[in-house]
Amino acid sequence: MKLHIITTGGTIDKIYFDAKSDYQVGDPVIGELLQRMAVGFPFTIESAMRKDSLDMNESDREKIRALAQNCAEECVLVTHGTDGMVATAQALQGLEGKRIVLTGALQPAAFAQSDAIFNIGCAIGALQSKPPGVYIAMNGEVFDADKVVKNLERNRFEAL
Questions:
Q1: pLDDT value at position 83?
Q2: Domain ranges, ordered by start, for the chain
Q3: pLDDT the model gives residue 16
Q4: pLDDT over 90 for what percent of the chain?
Q5: Which CATH number fits domain 3-159: 3.90.78.10, 3.40.50.1170, 3.30.300.330, 2.60.120.560?
Q6: Sign for the pseudo-dihedral over CA of 2, 86, 28, 57
Q7: What phi and psi values does residue 84 have, to the nearest 5 degrees?
Q8: Distance (Å, rounded) from C-alpha 160 to C-alpha 149?
Q9: What is the pLDDT of residues 59-110, one digit of tens each?
Q10: Residue 156: CB partners within 8 Å, gap ≥ 6?
């Protein structure tokens, strides 16, 4: 498998600044995480933007779609904020011959209790086992892009 990763920001890349007492989207962390996990496949990383998904718009989603469509790799992993993840997944549907999985984290990857590594691993497994299409890998499950919702009350993704 050759993997192309598109980073968009979101909680997975957030860092904490004590002086500011808030979180801000920092540099993409997935490259360092994959190197630490000693993955056995080549990957490339492309940063589309550094945004919280609540701040994303249709123009941002069109940019992500163009990057996924134009990359040479069949397998595409998109790191994304969880609040806008379903909308972006739906905007990526219909790209011929592409396996696209979106994932993110409910806690920044920098936190020890983060779900980032678990979600990334699940997404990589989905990329290697699912047919072409668009999926979301969160909470230990892989969902079809058009059959998932984020349950805000339970802070988790669920099948429709």
A1: 94
A2: 3-159
A3: 62
A4: 78
A5: 3.40.50.1170
A6: positive
A7: -105, 10
A8: 7
A9: 999 999 999 999 999 999 999 999 999 999 999 999 999 999 999 998 878 7
A10: 106, 138, 139, 150
Question: Rounded to two decimals, what is the model's pTM?
Answer: 0.92
What gap in Å lies between CA 86 and CA 143, rounded to an integer? 10
Mean pLDDT of the 8-37 span: 75
Instruction: At 60, list the tokens.
Output: 């941002």
Locate tokens 């349950």: which residue? 151
What is the 3 state secondary structure string of the chain?
CCEEEEEEECHHHEEEECCCCEEEECCCCHHHHHHHCCCCCCEEEEEEEEECHHHCCHHHHHHHHHHHHHCCCCEEEEECCCCCHHHHHHHCCCCCCCEEEEECCCCCCCCCCCCHHHHHHHHHHHHHHCCCEEEEEECCEEEECCCEEEECCCCEEEEC
Tell me: the pLDDT tens digits for 31-50?
A: 989 999 899 999 999 999 99
CA distance 152 to 123: 21
Amino acid at 132: P
